[in-house]
Design a protein that fits this description.
It contains 1 helix and no strands. It has about 110 residues and is mainly α. The protein has 2 domains: about 55 residues; about 35 residues, no CATH class.
C-alpha cells in the first residue's frame, strides 16, 4: 500500500530543476541590466554631444552675422539650412577694410 505524497527523490529532482531555471533567469536579468547600463551611458553621452553640437552650430551661424554681403562665401548664407561641406562657393572672399561701416562695432 502506497501513501500519498512525494518521495525525497522526487523533491530533490524538482528542486534541482527549479534551481537550474532560477540560475538561467538570474543570468538573463544580469545580462539585460548590464546592457541597460551601457546603453544608458551611451545615450547620456550622445545627448551631451548633441547639446554641444547645437551650441557650436548656433555660435557658428551667429559668427557670420556681421560679415558684409560681398565677403560671404557660403552659398547658403542667411538661411536655416545646415552647414555642409558640399556647399558651392558662390562669391569670392573679399577681405575686410577698416572703412567699411558694417563691420564689428568700433571699427571704422
Amino acid at each position: 500500500m502506497r501513501n500519498s505524497g512525494f518521495t525525497i527523490i522526487e523533491l530533490l529532482i524538482a528542486s534541482t530543476i527549479m534551481a537550474i531555471v532560477m540560475v538561467f533567469t538570474m543570468e538573463t536579468f544580469t545580462v539585460n541590466n548590464r546592457n541597460y547600463v551601457k546603453i544608458d551611458s551611451v545615450v547620456d553621452t550622445q545627448q551631451g554631444l548633441r547639446a554641444i553640437a547645437s551650441l557650436l552650430e548656433r555660435d557658428l551661424r551667429h559668427a557670420g552675422m556681421m560679415v558684409p554681403e560681398a565677403a560671404a562665401i557660403c552659398g547658403i548664407d542667411n538661411t536655416t539650412a545646415p552647414i555642409s561641406s558640399t556647399s558651392a562657393i558662390t562669391r569670392p572672399s573679399i577681405p575686410w577694410t577698416r572703412s567699411e561701416p558694417s563691420m564689428a562695432p568700433g571699427w571704422g
